[in-house]
């Protein structure tokens, strides 16, 4: 039997970028399937199974996996069966989806595992026919040879699994032979389940004997439970228990009503009488913003300056926060739409003093995440409720809970200053930022880290960026693009204003400030060409442009707006993400970032009055509707660059291009949303 | 608990819940129909949209009691194989990202096409304006509704 260690140790030039050991039952050889690594196996019936280590929250990692495995195993995308890995970092490596890493971290291990399986199958066929392996080919689930009848994989699995992988050279399918990568027209892996209502999200979890909990949450920021009068709640039919949740162990705090059904739990919560203490009942987001602005250092010299004020933003995924947990004598089971099942399992084991093997975290599909689901607070609540009742408990957040108890994108104030030459072209710049750290991850309480997240200025203008962090008055966290969403917005809006004031074209000025051979200049040229930029638009239409370089990818966005109707009419984006594995999915991520930009530049913001978040549902958190949707054209620019990140790429430039287009027909951009009081 | 008879997806079903229980929770937790999604509970997002007597309705703001003597169709009742024209269009144009809002979007589109077989973009926007998608699939939804209209007419 080949152990994982000996395979790696003798593989020589074979690139196997997988650190994971093969668990029992998934090894090659014996009577089991052909399974070069934990990510791919071909069973005795020829079924190809890909184990997807990272959860899918809509970014399409399951589809990505299917395309990569199908490419290397020479089958169709639909021929790959997907399994979702539980949280187990020791086995699967990093399982977090953050920092736009899904494709970048998984492409190589998935391709290598699948290519290894293919080469072993080919070697088995070659041995069977007694011909050189080079004369054989894998095609449509079979190995072929010019003089022999094709052999389906299922007839080769036993022999292939018995081969010593170290003796079989493994080659990845070269780009010129790709049938699927960058070319497939296949749709999302789970699409049929989605359109038939069968797709299973965290909120659909209902274990046998499971209960449901809803939580009475702090009515103002930071409030803690003083006392609870639960007689009424416990009298509601169906209510089983009332559980006090004290932070930090049990999330943000509150009182859970646990019942046999959601409706009963909600009724119970209505009758609960909770007395609260502490916190900041007078907090007001307008004052927070004023505090940030007042902390700006003295203005540096410059020919042009602009201050930008950016609001709090909520994540508001369509599936509100939820988690299911079952604490037993043997350990813990969790079902959660979470962005990092492996990290969560490790964290829970440590917190609860359990061996990791007794903590099982099942990663469900998630109805959006946008950075919110990297946090474990709903899981902590579910664990507390399960421990109190001895039953599996699903904690459901209502939409109002979700909107008002988020980890928000921090407010920020940016002062941009530019030194201009005689032509009005920037030759020096300052960008001073005052904002809050991300309270959900202490490492972000560091101006250098915040700057590294936010500052991706790609132009050849020397300058200085400074970051001053003030103490955050509420919970803040990762929001798509993280600080780049704020820094990049301010930088690109300012550059467009500089162009306008100097009489320069927004595209021309950017081209002047980018190296001629840069990927960014290339995508800018493509976006401008597709938008017919040089032809211009007729009044009242206006245009804005912005670029962004991050995660090893480049994007340019051209927006056409109608400021008289405060409307985005059309968007042309061009993106270079290196290898665009699943083209429809690549376009989808860009479209999503653009719609986030439409939402946040035209209206959505979170405000705090009298200590509490004002917005409650999509009724008042003014997210874009289909009525706000522009025509969107996304061009994927062919590229030989390594695979880049994508999920967080489009939002910053799209927001800046929209605001700049609106400003071209009116007042300059001074914040977000455009032309709206912030805070 | 009272007993209520609900006509769901062509079958008579019985639920034992208080009459003011939102229909959504009865569908999801009593009848196991988790296709209609909870998104807001106040009729503000459209994730639960289903058909009640052929019209787009929001089960989160209807009670079980008032749903008796109606014909309810959830996404599960549209076509289990996904071969309804709207579902086919959704698959063809690869509409979904996270997919959570899509059952509601699809059912709203079904209701629209039943009364307006050939909607223009304005009619599509008007019919789906209160169906929120947080992933930004609106351009594809718009195109898919147009495509579904073609498919329903038998166009290729």
Order of helices and strands of chain B: EEHEEHEHHHH
Major sheet: arrangement of strands of chain B: 2-1-5-3-4
The CATH architecture term of the largest domain in chain A is 2-Layer Sandwich
Beta strand count of chain B = 5
Q: What portion of residues of chain B is helical?
A: 25-40%
Question: Span from first to last CA of chain A?
Answer: 64 Å
Kindly state the mean pLDDT of chain A as a whole number? 94
CATH architecture grouping of the largest domain in chain B: Roll
Secondary-structure class of chain B: alpha+beta
Amino-to-carboxy terminus distance of chain B: 52 Å
Domain 2Fe-2S ferredoxin-type (chain B): 2-78
Pfam family, one (chain B): Fer2
Keywords (chain B): 2Fe-2S, Iron, Iron-sulfur, Metal-binding, Oxidoreductase
GO molecular function (chain B): 2 iron, 2 sulfur cluster binding; metal ion binding; oxidoreductase activity
How would you describe what is shown here?
The complex is a heterodimer of chains A (679) and B (156). Chain A is of the alpha+beta class and 679 residues long. In chain A, the strands form seven sheets. A seven-stranded mixed β-sheet of chain A has the order 10-11-8-17-14-15-16. Chain A has a four-stranded mixed β-sheet with strand order 1-2-3-4. Chain A has a four-stranded mixed β-sheet with strand order 13-18-19-20. In chain A, α2 packs parallel to α4 (102-129), α14 runs parallel beside α18 (651-663) and α17 (583-602) crosses α18. The longest helix of chain A has 28 residues, at 102-129. Chain A is flat, with a radius of gyration of 27 Å. Chain B is α+β, with helices and mostly antiparallel strands and 156 residues long. In chain B, α3 crosses α6. The mean pLDDT of chain B is 97. The chains are: A alpha+beta (679), B alpha+beta (156). Chains A and B meet through α6 and α17 of A and α1, α3, α4, α5 and α6 of B.
């Amino acid at each position: 039997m080949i152990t994982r260690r000996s395979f790696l140790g003798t593989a020589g030039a074979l690139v196997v970028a997988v650190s994971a050991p093969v668990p029992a039952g998934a090894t090659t050889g014996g009577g089991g399937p052909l399974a070069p690594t934990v990510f791919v196996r071909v069973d005795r019936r020829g079924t190809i199974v890909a184990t997807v280590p990272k959860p899918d929250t809509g970014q399409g990692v399951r589809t990505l996996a299917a395309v990569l495995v199908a490419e290397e195993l020479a089958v169709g995308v639909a021929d790959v069966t997907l399994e979702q890995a539980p949280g187990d970092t020791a086995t699967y490596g990093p399982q977090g989806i953050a920092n736009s890493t899904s494709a970048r971290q998984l492409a190589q291990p998935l391709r290598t595992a699948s290519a290894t399986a293919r080469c072993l199958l080919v070697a088995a066929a070659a041995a069977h026919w007694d011909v050189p392996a080079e004369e054989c080919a894998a095609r449509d689930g079979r190995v072929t040879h010019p003089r022999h009848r094709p052999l389906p994989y299922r007839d080769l699995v036993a022999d292939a699994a018995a081969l010593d992988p170290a003796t079989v050279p493994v080659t990845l399918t070269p780009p010129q032979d790709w049938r699927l990568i960058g070319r497939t027209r296949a749709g999302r892996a789970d699409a049929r389940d989605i359109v038939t209502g069968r797709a299973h999200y965290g909120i659909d979890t209902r274990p046998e004997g499971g209960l449901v909990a809803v939580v009475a949450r702090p009515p103002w920021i930071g409030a803690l439970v003083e006392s609870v009068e639960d007689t009424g709640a416990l009298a509601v039919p169906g209510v089983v228990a009332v559980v006090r949740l004290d932070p930090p162990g049990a999330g943000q705090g509150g009182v859970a009503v646990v019942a046999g059904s959601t409706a009963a739990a909600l009724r119970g919560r209505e009758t609960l009488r909770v007395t609260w203490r502490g916190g900041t009942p007078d907090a007001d987001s307008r004052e927070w913003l004023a505090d940030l602005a007042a902390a700006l250092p003295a203005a540096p010299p410059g020919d042009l300056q602009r201050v930008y004020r950016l609001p709090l933003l909520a994540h508001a995924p369509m599936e509100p926060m939820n988690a299911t947990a079952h604490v037993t004598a043997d350990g813990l089971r969790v079902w959660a739409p979470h962005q990092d099942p492996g990290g969560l399992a490790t964290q829970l084991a440590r917190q609860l003093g359990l061996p990791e093997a007794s903590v099982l975290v099942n990663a469900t599909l998630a109805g959006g995440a946008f950075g919110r689901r990297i946090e474990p607070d709903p899981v902590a609540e579910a664990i507390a409720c399960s421990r109190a009742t001895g039953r599996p408990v699903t904690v459901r957040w209502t939409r109002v809970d979700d909107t008002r108890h988020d980890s928000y994108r921090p407010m920020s104030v940016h002062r941009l200053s530019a030194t201009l030459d005689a032509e009005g072209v920037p030759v020096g710049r300052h960008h001073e930022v005052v904002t809050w750290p991300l309270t959900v991850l202490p490492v972000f309480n560091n101006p250098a880290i915040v700057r590294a997240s936010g500052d991706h200025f790609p132009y050849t203008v020397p300058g200085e960026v400074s970051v001053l962090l003030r103490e955050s008055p509420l919970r803040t966290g990762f929001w798509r693009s993280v600080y780049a969403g704020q820094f990049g917005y301010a930088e690109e809006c300012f550059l467009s204003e500089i162009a306008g004031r100097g009489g320069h074209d927004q595209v021309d000025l950017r081209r002047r400030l980018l190296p001629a051979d840069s990927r960014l200049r290339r995508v800018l040229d493509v976006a401008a060409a597709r938008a017919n930029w040089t032809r211009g638009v007729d009044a009242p239409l206006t245009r804005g442009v912005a670029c962004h370089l991050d995660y090893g990818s480049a994007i340019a966005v051209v927006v056409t707006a109608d400021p008289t109707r405060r409307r985005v009419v059309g968007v042309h984006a061009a993106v270079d993400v290196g290898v665009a594995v699943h083209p429809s999915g690549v376009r989808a991520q860009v479209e999503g970032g653009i719609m986030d930009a439409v939402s946040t530049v035209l209206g959505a913001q979170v405000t705090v009055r009298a200590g509490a978040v004002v917005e409650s549902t999509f009724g008042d958190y003014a997210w874009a509707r289909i009525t706000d949707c522009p025509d969107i054209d996304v061009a994927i620019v062919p590229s030989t660059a390594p695979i880049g990140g994508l999920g967080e790429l489009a939002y910053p430039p799209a927001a800046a291009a929209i605001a700049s287009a609106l400003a071209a027909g009116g007042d300059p951009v001074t914040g977000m949303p455009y032309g709206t009081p912030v805070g | 608990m009272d007993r209520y008879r609900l006509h769901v997806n062509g079958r008579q079903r019985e639920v034992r819940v208080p009459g003011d229980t939102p229909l959504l929770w009865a569908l999801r937790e009593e009848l196991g129909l988790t296709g209609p999604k909870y998104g807001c509970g106040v009729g503000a997002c459209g994730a639960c949209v289903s058909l009640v007597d052929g019209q787009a309705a929001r089960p989160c703001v209807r009670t079980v009691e008032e749903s008796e003597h109606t014909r309810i169709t959830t996404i599960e009742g549209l076509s289990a194989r996904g071969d309804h024209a709207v579902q086919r269009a959704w698959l063809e144009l690869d509409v979904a990202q996270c997919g959570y809002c899509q059952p509601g979007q699809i059912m709203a589109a079904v209701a629209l096409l039943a009364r307006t077989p050939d909607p223009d973009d304005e009619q599509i926007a008007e019919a789906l304006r209160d169906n929120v998608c947080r992933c930004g699939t609106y351009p594809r939804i718009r195109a898919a509704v147009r495509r579904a209209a073609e498919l329903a007419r038998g166009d290729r």
